């Protein structure tokens, strides 16, 4: 799976945008040969939160992690808004005495992308529509928007619309999400 650097922005939720790298340094009393995975998870989450204002959920497993130059550990980053899971590769780029730094790269495509589905005449939670809108908008923006819609459920009928918005660096942007296709189980949207 191709990897690219990962960046979030302060007012954004996690989603599919993977834009730039992140480096973080941490000091310890002693230069450890291995560290508990929780230390790396917390350090990586803190670095991303410091950079973006959004704290991700990161899981690096249960085994102690060796800290050495060019050492690599693969972790799982979970998007707290859309629930998408991304493989995340952490590479240690410097280890000097009791300090080390690493680079974080997140996969381009989430591990758990699902096809939007609904039964004929069904409604879906608005969070499903918000997640799809985030995925639709992210490639056209320089950040991952946090989309909120004016509904609790959306009936899946071609032509049905829901008013939504997201905060951008220039203020609130209003958009309309339209159900464009529905084949009886899968549906598509358009964001205008």
Your description of this structure?
- The chain is elongated, with a radius of gyration of 19 Å.
- Strands 1, 2, 4, 6, 7 and 8 form a 6-stranded antiparallel β-sheet that branches.
- The chain is mainly β.
- The chain is built from 2 helices and 14 strands.
- The chain has 2 domains: 3-107, no CATH class; 123-191.
Secondary structure elements and pairings:
Layout: E1 3-5, E2 23-27, E3 34-35, H1 37-52, E4 57-59, E5 65-66, E6 72-78, E7 85-96, E8 99-107, E9 123-125, H2 126-137, E10 148-149, E11 153-155, E12 161-168, E13 171-182, E14 187-191
Antiparallel strand pairs: 1-8, 2-8, 3-5, 4-6, 6-7, 7-8, 9-11, 10-12, 12-13, 13-14
Rg for CA atoms? 19 Å
Helix content: 10-25%
- Straight-line N-to-C gap: 31 Å
Global morphology: elongated
Structural class: mainly beta
How do the helices and strands follow one another from N- to C-terminus?
EEEHEEEEEEHEEEEE
Query: Main β-sheet: number of strands, strand sense, barrel status?
Result: 6 strands, antiparallel
Tally of separate helices: 2
Number of strands: 14
Percent range for β-strand residues: 35-45%
Brief description of this entry?
The chain has 2 helices and 14 strands, in the order E-E-E-H-E-E-E-E-E-E-H-E-E-E-E-E.
Key traits:
mainly beta, 2 domains, 6-stranded antiparallel beta sheet, 15% helix, elongated, disordered N terminus
């Amino acid at each position: 799976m191709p990897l690219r650097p990962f960046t979030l922005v302060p007012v954004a939720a996690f989603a599919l945008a993977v834009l730039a790298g992140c480096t973080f340094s941490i000091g310890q009393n002693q230069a450890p040969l291995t560290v508990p995975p929780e230390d790396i998870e917390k350090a990586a989450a803190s670095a991303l939160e410091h950079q973006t204002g959004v704290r991700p959920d990161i899981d690096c497993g249960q085994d102690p992690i060796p800290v050495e130059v060019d050492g690599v550990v693969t972790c799982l980053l979970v998007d707290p808004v859309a629930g998408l899971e991304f493989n995340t590769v952490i590479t240690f780029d410097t280890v000097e005495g009791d300090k080390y730094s690493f680079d974080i790269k997140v996969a381009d495509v989430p591990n758990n992308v699902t096809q939007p589905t609904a039964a004929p005449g069904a409604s879906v939670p608005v969070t499903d529509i918000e997640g799809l809108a985030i995925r639709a908008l992210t490639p056209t923006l320089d950040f991952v928007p946090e989309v909120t819609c004016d509904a609790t459920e959306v009936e899946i009928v071609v032509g049905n619309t829901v008013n939504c918005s997201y905060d951008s660096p220039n203020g609130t942007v209003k958009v309309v999400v339209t159900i464009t296709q529905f084949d009886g189980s899968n549906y598509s949207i358009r964001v205008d």
